[in-house]
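User: Show me a protein chain along with its predicted structure.
Assistant: Here is one chain, sequence first, then structure tokens.
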Amino acid sequence: MCYLKQFPILSACLVAFGISSSTAFPPTSMSLDECREALKGPKNIFADSFKAALLDEAKINVSKKMYNESRCGWCQHFCRETEILLNIMGAYFDSIMNITNRSKVIVPFLRIMVEEGLQFLCDNYAEAYTAYFFAHQELYFMESYEICRHLLPEDVGTWYCDTETPDDDHAIQFICEGFVGAFECMEKNITTEDSTLEGKTFLSSASQRIKNTKFCSEFF
């Protein structure tokens, strides 16, 4: 999606939430298929909202001038727009709070996860995002991602929608453990050469940040 298509882990963390700006749902009970279908529109709207927020040429040019000596100018630009992104996300989360009984529980959790994720990426002048940006360019990093990607929670329908699966009461635990498991799996599966240290540090810090969040800490 937009620039993030080049960064699959970051896409999984942000894009999978299906963020949009203004689609509201009535507080009604839906089947799993109906719920998934209802969420397709908002996810598509998010693509346009995200593109407008981050790929505005005038804003990019300003960022280039501001951060012309930065190691990762794009990372700085992304982080300069976090307030706008958080507003887009907040409006979306408000609009789908009552789509199902499950969403009433999941949405507050995802709101905090997204806020924590952006803060983590952008703290200390985008230190974590810069580490991820450059680690992602290396083959070792993407090889470990391919090995571990199956651990990432991907199906948005099982996040927001009421289902009859045994995991109904454990959706938050499933998401927390999925991301932490994927990051820890990647950390174990990349080589130990000096060039991998930045990627290892990013993965270790990301998994620890998730473990320490309000909703996830009880599972670790």
